[in-house]
Amino acid sequence: MKTAFGTMVLLPLGFAVAGAYIWATAPAQGKLLGMIWTVVGVALLAFFAILVLVLGRKRARTLAVREHGIAATAVITEMSDTGMQVNYQPQMQIGLEVHVPGVAPYRHSMRKVVPLSMLGQLRPGATIAVHVAADDPHTVVMEEPSRLLVAG
Predict the structure, then answer these.
(1) pLDDT tens over the chain, length 152 residues
(2) Is 97 in contact with 75 (CB distance < 8 Å)?
């Protein structure tokens, strides 16, 4: 977390401050460099602020569905690798048949980063625990990995 804070706040802030200093104190030839550094620093700061805002909202929605959503099960119908990795863990395209109590089963598809230790257990035919948003049945959130597998 400290590294992320340093990258997202201190680095762009350093660019902006150094650029402003160069811009203010340099002779005419150096003012352009200072201006560029300032603009880059402010742009990076804005980009990271938007990124944190978007990811924070997504995380909050996921936690809200896990906490207040309808507990359900889903059967994995298909799994395929997207070719992307996050921290050396593969992102998978997962096809599900969701079973919510009192509702007809329906299909749902999601992309999820799957820990390598879970790849052998998560396969077509496995039943997993999910939560479904009460206001939107297409918002399906998988349970935490430690409580994910219901039946194999």
Answers:
(1) 456 666 777 788 888 888 888 888 888 877 888 888 889 888 988 998 898 888 888 888 888 888 888 999 999 999 999 999 989 999 999 999 999 998 899 999 999 888 888 888 888 998 888 999 988 888 898 887 666 666 55
(2) yes
Structure tokens at 28: 């005419």
* DSSP strands (E only) in the chain: 70-86, 89-99, 106-113, 127-132, 140-142, 149-151
Distance CA 64, CA 58 (A): 10
The rounded distance, in Å, linking the Cα atoms of 3 and 7 is 6
Could you tell me if 91 and 111 are in contact, meaning their C-beta atoms sit under 8 angstroms apart? yes
Rg (CA), the chain: 23
H helices, E strands: number in the chain: 3, 6
* Dihedral class, residue 125 (left if φ above 0, else alpha if ψ from -120 to 50, else beta): left
What would the two tokens of residue 125 be?
A: 């035919």
Q: Cα–chain-centroid distance for residue 92? A: 14
